[in-house]
Amino acid sequence: MEKRWFSKLLGGAKSRRLETTQARADEGLADAQFSLGLQFASVKGGVPDYAQAVRWYLLAANQNHAMAQFNLGIMLAEGQGVPRDDAGSEKWMRRAAQQGDAGAQHNMGSRHRRASFKAPPAVALESNLEAYKWFSLAAAQDYRGSDMAFESVALGLTPEQVAEGDGRAAAFTVVSPGIVQS
Predict the structure, then answer these.
(1) Which of 4, 56, 91, 151 has the highest CB neighbour number within 10 Å of its CB?
(2) In this predicted structure, what is the pLDDT of residue 39?
(3) How confident is the model at residue 115 (pLDDT cuts 50, 70, 90)?
(4) Smallest Cα–Cα separation from 107: which of 133, 134, 88?
């Protein structure tokens, strides 16, 4: 049976959209590069091509695309498409967090919180203050679980330390992508 006229019309839309995205990504547009990375990482019904996803995320991340930086950080942490690289993961996650990405801010809070458990008291306090700051910033954007996480950190802090954590969060401002004052 021959395809109906509307199937022919709509069937090519997806491939034209992909071609257009590819062309825009090849031209260096960060949003298109991120979109291609996302497509390669989340192929529906097929096998994801994580190496290609990392390639496109890296191109967009180098242009200060916060979501690409976040996704690249996750892939580096999990070793998807590349060897596992905790330092590289933290670098990209921090950049995304500094640009205001709530997921990256939550991730940075979690990293600092975990670090506090293994550190000597003075270092643990600094890690907890940073965890509190990042969780607080993510919670202000209603990022799931961040409010409970920063409250959990606060339980182990003195009122003065909570005030310092609040001050760090209040002092955090995003000036422009890639340039942060904190």
Answers:
(1) 56
(2) 93
(3) very high
(4) 134
